[in-house]
Amino acid sequence: MTVAAFMDAALYDTEFGYYARTARRSGRAGDFFTSVDVGPLFGELLARQVVEMAGLLESPVDLVEAGAGNGRLSADILRAIRRTHPALYDRVRLHLVEISAEARAAQRESLGDLQDRLASSSPDLPTGFTGVLIANELLDAFPVHQVVMRREGLREVYVDVRANRLTTIEGQVSTPGLSEYLERERIALEPGWCAEINLRAVEWTRAAVQSMTRGFVILIDYGHPARELYSVTHSGGTLTTFSRHTMAGPERPGATPAWLERPGEQDITSHVDFTSVQRAAEGEGAAVLGFLDQTYFLLGLKAAEIEADDLKTRLALKTLLMPGGLGSTLKVLILSKNVGTPALLGCSFRVRVT
Question: What does the DSSP 8-state code read for residue 294?
Fold first, then answer.
């Protein structure tokens, strides 16, 4: 099977999949750490951007979170809006998009007294909505095809079973879409280079923009522009795993890749090609308003002006903003559809990726 098919089963199988079997995988007790795990501060800052965007739209406003998990981020955003802009809170309709039944079942507990704003909880995006769509660390968890360039041409990596063990083999590419993807982005892999191609991220982006009538999209994820992702810097590929806050190290020649071990019991992820995501969005009528480090996005939202009187808040700010951590490794892509190209708070400090 392709690496994409293996990842799809290992992560999303309804019975054995890593994400399907529990409501929450991040945090100190989980396998990895996200901006949401820092505390409510991240959601409070995002709320400032949502408020500004909502002011440019008609009433009511749909707030859609894709890959919502148990709904913690949306809960943090809504609590901040209710506290600072109660009139807007009454106009918000919340849609939580999550494929895990376990996570969906936990959403009402996360929302608590915010449940009056919940309009839908579903595996699928709502259609025809006007508002703000947020996807925080969603695209990097989509199944990817893995390819390797040989002197005779592009080859695809497949998962096979040998001597009762999972292993990888190379073969012909499973779909012409892989070669077309590289050609479209003008990517020239050198012999020996390995790379991941996230066709699902492109498909999802197109569907997301199509599902929106008017509004904004905020995508936050690990990744790079295509020219950097498909370069000598990442010539070994970016497919890796997280387990108990430990990322798998570089693959040893001839060794079983870490992402093949314990399927269903560890996270599998790869960096996002933001160039292809941006191109897919523009192809469906979206405009790009900004692509920048999370640090600069949050500084634009006046994160530096927060009065951090207690140690917990100071540490949260540092975690969200500091280069070398979440601040620079996470990128933010902001899109609009049928609302023009307004200047936004999140892009007011500096529009830059490092």
Answer: H
Backbone torsions φ then ψ of 249, nearest 5 degrees: -80, 180
In the chain, % of residues over pLDDT 70:
92
Q: What is the pLDDT of residues 143-156, one digit of tens each?
A: 999 999 999 999 99
Which CA distances in Å does 30 have to 27, 40, 119, 127, 197?
5, 18, 29, 33, 27
Average pLDDT over residues 56-60: 89
Say if residue 18's pLDDT is above 70: yes
Distance between CA atoms of 286 and 279, rounded to whole angstroms?
9
Which residue's entry shows tokens 């148990």?
70
What residues does each domain of the chain span?
22-142+198-230+268-347
CA-nearest of 205, 186, 324, 216 to 272 is 205
pLDDT at 163: 77
Is residue 103 within 8 A of residue 79, CB to CB? The reply is no
Q: What's the pTM value of the predicted model, to 2 decimals? A: 0.93
Q: Is the model more confident about 80 or about 317?
A: 80
Q: What is the DSSP string of 3-28?
A: HHHHHHHHHH-TTT-TTTS-S--BST
Q: Does domain 22-142+198-230+268-347 have CATH number 3.40.309.10?
A: no
pLDDT (tens digit, 9 = 90+) per residue, 144-191?
999 999 999 999 999 998 878 899 999 999 999 999 999 999 999 999
Give the residues across from 136 on adjacent strands.
Answer: 220
- Which neighbouring-strand residues pair with 337? 215
CA distances from 204 to 199, 208, 325 (A): 9, 6, 27
Please give the Cα distance from 68 to 54 (Å, whole number). 20
Residue 348 sits at the vertex; the CA angle it makes with 344 and 350, to the nearest 5 degrees, is 130
Please check whether residue 137 is in contact with residue 269, taking contact to mean a CB–CB distance below 8 angstroms: no
